[in-house]
Amino acid sequence: MLSTDTGGHVMHPVMKPALRRGWRDRDTVQFGMTPAHALTLGPMDPATNGFLDLLNGTRGLPLLREEGRRLDLPPGHADTLLTRLTRAGLVDDARGGGPAADALREKTDVLARLRPDLAALSLTTAEPGAALARLAARRTLRVQVRGAGRVGAVLASVLSGAGVGEVDVRDTGRVEPWDVAPGGLPAESLGERRDTAARNAVRHAAPGRPPRHAHSPGSGAQDAGLALVILAPRDEVAVHAPDPADAEPLLASGTPHLYAGVVEATGVVGPLVLPGASGCAGCLHLDRGDRDPAWPRLTAQWRSPKARRVAACELTLATAVAGLAAAHALAFLDGQSPTSAGTRWEVSLPGLDWRSRPVRAHPACGCGAAQRGKKGEHTSTGGERRATMAVQRPSAERRRKAGEARPTGTWRAHV
């Protein structure tokens, strides 16, 4: 039976509004449209349907149980329905998420900006209240973006707009005409310091104004507590062949870091480096040297000081790279495992076909990821199916069978 939690919080269930509802037939309702998230539930009798209409976040569990009795639901049926719906990921808690979520609810102007992000998080979290809790947690995180060109400045602004509490941008030099990009450095910033202009863009993108911390730029404090560092260099060589020396302090401090950029009309996202657990820039460099004896000679020539040239960083490609890198960064910050961990995603003009290239841990690299990999990892298939509600993700066969007759007396979900 559902109950209040240990803090005395009373759950206020609400059917997740991000999922559209539609009737497949007289007694089968579908929540959601896309195969990734849609579920069908049935058979649905009038009393149960009426009960679902009451799940709008305005009633606590005691009142819902009383309403269930008025609808002539069998004893305990309201709790059973809520338990099954919650396990299927269809129910949220309008007042859940803990103290940080409560504080965010009070910032109505901030939450209004973040409503689409909250709706998306509700689709990727099953526990009621978890979506707002994650959104509130973002506001406590610190991310640093190294590079304020067409990719880095846009990426930093997107993270700030998505609710990350502190996004610091590091770069040198002054804004050039080719640095300007929608969502990144504005034309009005020409001639300004790149890092200053990028930080201004980040502040303008933020929903609300998170408080400045003692370690904010200019405070002189050390870069402690970074949840993620994103390396988005303007230099094409640094994108294609990231220098392992640049990441040595990050590896030493155990700071996760993600690479992103554009080189010769090719966009790159990844790898996301989890120090000691996944392949790093050093692993990438050593692996390339194993496969191509000329690699060290080429990188030495590419990195030699020469006159700077304007990179082939087409605007739409740079924007796509910034968006994908930001999505991978947010997935990691939200506690997920994005596919960029140990992988580089690449896309080239004009075909725009994203492809993945693994960055394997190299045994000769000092990062230690290869030694850890030898110990093996345990993988899980997610456990056994629930007996009370079948939750099946889409396939062509399931979609063909979605309209077929179903056994009565059970709740099923198959799209």
From TrEMBL:
<protein>
    <recommendedName>
        <fullName>THIF-type NAD/FAD binding fold domain-containing protein</fullName>
    </recommendedName>
</protein>
<feature type="region of interest" description="Disordered">
    <location>
        <begin position="365"/>
        <end position="415"/>
    </location>
</feature>
<feature type="compositionally biased region" description="Basic and acidic residues">
    <location>
        <begin position="374"/>
        <end position="387"/>
    </location>
</feature>
<dbReference type="Pfam" id="PF00899">
    <property type="entry name" value="ThiF"/>
</dbReference>
<dbReference type="InterPro" id="IPR035985">
    <property type="entry name" value="Ubiquitin-activating_enz"/>
</dbReference>
<feature type="domain" description="THIF-type NAD/FAD binding fold">
    <location>
        <begin position="139"/>
        <end position="366"/>
    </location>
</feature>
<dbReference type="InterPro" id="IPR022291">
    <property type="entry name" value="Bacteriocin_synth_cyclodeHase"/>
</dbReference>
<dbReference type="GO" id="GO:0008641">
    <property type="term" value="F:ubiquitin-like modifier activating enzyme activity"/>
</dbReference>
<feature type="region of interest" description="Disordered">
    <location>
        <begin position="178"/>
        <end position="198"/>
    </location>
</feature>
<dbReference type="InterPro" id="IPR000594">
    <property type="entry name" value="ThiF_NAD_FAD-bd"/>
</dbReference>
